[in-house]
Design brief:
alpha/beta, 2 domains, 8-stranded parallel β-sheet, Type Iii Antifreeze Protein Isoform Hplc 12, TIM Barrel, two-stranded antiparallel sheet, 355 residues, 12 helices
Length: 355
């Protein structure tokens, strides 16, 4: 069993001890505007994201015309999935290639979630890895098409159980995928904090010890970017959050997205958290603790002046700092031993003092 899993996303190798790979999920917050898409890429780069992600689909291929909504209608009033997807599915292959070219020019990874088999081939030419939507975790034809690219895969797990996740992971492996990160996700827009269930990250780490675990977030961002920071502390090493240029816009995924200032803030917080966490898992003594170990620990010290040949008793001893004499862990051994010379009150006992 590999207890030190890793995955390479772009030029970044992730382990359980690394900083996270951060994805700014534009999705369709570009609202069908190529100009806005470019603006969002630039903002994601400014904010410090490792990758910026879009969604590649055509409404006629993703949803039937009578498919009902599954989002908060108070935030997005469209009641038909097909109708909503039709609003912003005007980008084509050349548009995505142009967006990918711009990403290369400013050195940020271009990503886009495929929602049908037809787009996988050309996305494979312009992306370093693939992301599978939670909604497609049981879409085995799409999983197979993506797995056959042999590229790393991020598998989102919203609205799924462990058996479904295991089955999909096994299916991906059987079809050629050997680098799979598993992302905790709650498929609810927006996700209330009480439903975030970030502790599931720990459960996924326990269930899938050979895999890097991540988090795809749909909660509302707060001042301290708490959900993302907590997910990192719990073990998420791929972190994805919807991204917008204006959180006050209605519809789409603007209302639960972060903006560039949120992204910058999260980067600062995560850097501090990473420094505080350190890279040592096994408890050990740091060099900086040496002086405290010596001077703040305790030694056996005499309560009163004693003569040579005296047999030490429990009531003769007290434990005091510093710790450069006989440790209190040996108190029962010292009791009953004799001292070899006259010793003063408050004397710190050493092994040379007793026999």
């Amino acid at each position: 069993m590999n207890l030190s899993p890793s995955i390479t996303l772009g030029d970044k190798k992730l382990t359980n001890q690394s900083l996270p790979y951060i994805i700014a999920e534009v999705g369709v917050n570009h609202e069908g505007s190529f100009k806005k898409a470019i603006e969002l890429i630039d903002l994601a780069k400014e904010g410090g994201a490792d990758g910026v992600k879009f969604q590649t689909y055509k409404a006629d291929k993703i949803a039937s015309k009578n498919s009902p909504s599954y989002w908060d209608l108070g935030k997005e009033s469209t009641t038909s999935q097909h109708e909503l997807f039709k609003k912003y599915d005007n980008f084509n292959e050349s548009d995505y290639r142009s967006l990918a070219k711009h990403c290369r020019q400013i050195n940020i990874d271009f990503l886009s979630t495929p929602f049908d088999n037809d787009c996988v081939d050309y996305l494979n030419e312009i992306m370093p890895f693939f992301k599978i939507s939670s909604s497609d975790i049981t879409n085995y034809p799409l999983l197979k098409k993506v797995a056959l690219t042999r590229k790393p895969i991020l598998l989102s797990t919203g609205a799924s159980n462990i058996d479904e996740i295991k089955s999909s992971v096994d299916f991906l492996k059987k079809n050629g995928s050997n680098q799979i990160a598993i992302l905790h996700c709650i498929l609810n827009y927006p996700t209330a904090d009480k439903n975030g269930n970030l502790a599931m990250i720990i459960g996924l780490k326990n269930e899938f010890q050979n895999h890097i675990i991540g988090y795809s977030d749909h909660t509302l961002p707060d001042e301290n970017m708490t959900s993302l920071t907590t997910s990192f502390i719990l073990g998420a090493r791929v972190i994805e959050k919807h991204f917008t240029f204006n959180k006050n816009l209605t519809g789409n995924d603007h209302y639960h997205a972060m903006d560039v200032n949120d992204l910058k803030k999260f980067k600062r917080i995560i850097s501090k958290s990473y420094e505080l966490m350190g890279n040592k898992i096994k408890k050990e003594i740091l060099p900086e603790e040496a002086i405290a170990r010596k001077n703040a620990r305790r030694s056996l010290v005499l309560k009163r002046k004693l003569k040579s040949g005296y047999t030490l008793k429990e009531e003769d001893l007290i434990c005091k700092r510093p710790g450069n004499g006989i440790s209190p862990i040996y108190s029962s051994k010292v009791e009953g031993m004799k001292i070899i010379r006259d010793l003063d009150e408050d004397h710190i006992l050493s092994w040379e003092d007793v026999f």
